[in-house]
Amino acid sequence: MIQLPFKPLSNQRVTTSIGGIEYTFRLVWNTRAQLYTMDIRVDGVDAVTGINVTSGVDILGQYNLPISNMVAINLANPKAELSKRSIGATSFIFLLTDSEVESINEIQT
Predict the structure, then answer these.
(1) SS3 39
(2) pTM, whole model, 2 decimals?
(3) How far apart, in whole angstroms, are the C-alpha atoms of residue 109 and residue 89?
(4) Fewer Cβ atoms within 10 Å of its own Cβ: the N or the C terminal residue of the chain?
(5) Rounded to 5 degrees, what angle do the CA atoms 93, 97, 99 make?
(6) Model confidence at 12: pLDDT above 80
(7) pLDDT at position 56, please?
(8) Maximum Cα interatomic distance, the chain, rounded to a whole number of Å
(9) DSSP code string of 35-55
């Protein structure tokens, strides 16, 4: 499990290396829609833009990227949606391995 190092800010950019590939994640709070959107750059090239960041689901599930199983979770209340001030405070974004996802699915069923 990898936790992306976001801070409790409404708009931010984080660059990290995963498996030897450099990723830049940009989070932007959309005031009108009351949700975060994410842009992802892979080795300096835009890969995906405008992904809605929703709590508790695989954010990257529909995209063909070298990474997957990205989940935002509010640790204080797992059923709560993300808020403008929750990322980096009570809500965090994780990249899970396939085996971690399988373990979670087994617990939920």
Answers:
(1) strand
(2) 0.86
(3) 29
(4) C
(5) 130
(6) yes
(7) 85
(8) 40
(9) EEEEEEEETTEEEEEEEEE-B
